[in-house]
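Intended use. Records such as the Conserved domain protein entry shown here are meant for training and evaluating sequence-to-structure methods. They are not intended to support clinical decisions.
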Amino acid sequence: MENYNHNCLVFATHKLDEGILDYLSNLKKEVEGVMDLLILYDRSNSPIKREDHPEYNFYFFDSTGLKGFFHQNERLLPNTFVALAECAKQYRYDHYLLMENDIVLHGDFRRFVQRVNAEDAVDYIHIATDTEGSPQKHWPIRYIRENPFRHLYFSWCHILYVSHGFLTDVAEFMARNDSVYYEFLLPTMAYNGNYLVRQFENFGYRFQVSWGPAELYESKYMEERIPDTFYHPVKDLGIVDWGAGDMP
């Protein structure tokens, strides 16, 4: 695949139903001329053919066979960063904006992408908001062993932005020590290392995000619709009004 832009929006999904296809159609229009769009597709449950969707570029992987995708073999802890690291070996960009298929923005997504894309020197942009309040409140911490870092951090990874260099460094650490779940590892490596870090909140964005339940955050999205706010998880994409200032 030829790179038309220096940076890439990587949309992670395991299905291509009507809601996801609507989402992708809008994303493609909103990132045009700013970032490339690549679909990081887990075909373990719903395999598809590339030729059935010629308008999109794909990187296919199988989560059941990808080492480390399920952190410490825990099915509740998929590690999408592992798939991104494999993808980056084939698709080389300066930066990757990785997002899950169930996070939505009430606001102008093109403006969001333009703001992020302008950060040429940054290594990592992340979600700072955490309603739990500290890394110790997140149960995957119990898997960490031989922690070499002085300070431990946590960040939700529903959406994140990484440079190729930082991605490579994180992947190399994972190869040596696979005990640190990526929602701990990325911010911890970034803040303990010599990396340029920013937070999406620095650009004026807010987050209503957690693990769920989806019904709660879908309700928040429907009732609040706070400008420039991301909501996760929103499983029912049918509630998103793409043409009324929502994402994109």
